[in-house]
Amino acid sequence: MALTLATYRGKVSDQSDTVVLEEGAALPPGTEVLVTPVGQVPPRRGSPAAVLRALQAGPEVTAEDVEELLRAIHESQSDVDWQGPFAAQETEDGGERLP
């Protein structure tokens, strides 16, 4: 098999996994080709590159957004009852009783 150094350009069609060559690029049917993607090819879903891309494209968080979140967290906090529901309670005469 002879290796030719001609370069052809084309695009993958929307309907199938077929490469459509630019006009003027005529290859006989059955010609074996090597396709090298050019340009921006999105990374495979779930790959490390895709995760990094998603992190870099995340929303812009401002200082005001952080303050609003901290304020909402603070407002939603409630007092903690350190005595459990089964803790003994003191009676009027100084004794203890279980609930």
Describe the overall structure.
With 99 residues, this protein is of the alpha+beta class. Helices cover 23% and strands 10% of the residues. It contains 2 helices and 4 strands, in the order E-E-H-H-E-E. The protein has helices at residues 48-56, 63-76; strands spanning 10-12, 19-21, 89-90, 96-97. The strands form 2 sheets. Strands 1-2 form a two-stranded antiparallel ribbon. Strand 3 and strand 4 form a beta hairpin.
SSE map:
Elements: E1 10-12, E2 19-21, H1 48-56, H2 63-76, E3 89-90, E4 96-97
Antiparallel strand pairs: 1-2, 3-4
| Annotation field: number of helices | 2
* Unreliable parts: none
Shape: rod-shaped
Quantity of strands, as a count: 4
Helix fraction, binned, reads 10-25%
- The value of Rg in angstroms is 34 Å
Which range does the strand content fall in?
5-15%
Main beta-sheet annotation: 2 strands, antiparallel
Strand order of the largest sheet: 1-2
Mean pLDDT: 82
Q: H/E element string?
A: EEHHEE
Query: End-to-end span in angstroms?
Result: 91 Å
Class derived from helix and strand content: alpha+beta
Comma- or semicolon-separated keywords:
single chain; alpha+beta; two-stranded antiparallel ribbon; 2 helices; about 25% helix
Summarize the structure.
This protein is of the alpha+beta class. The protein contains 2 helices and 4 strands, in the order E-E-H-H-E-E.
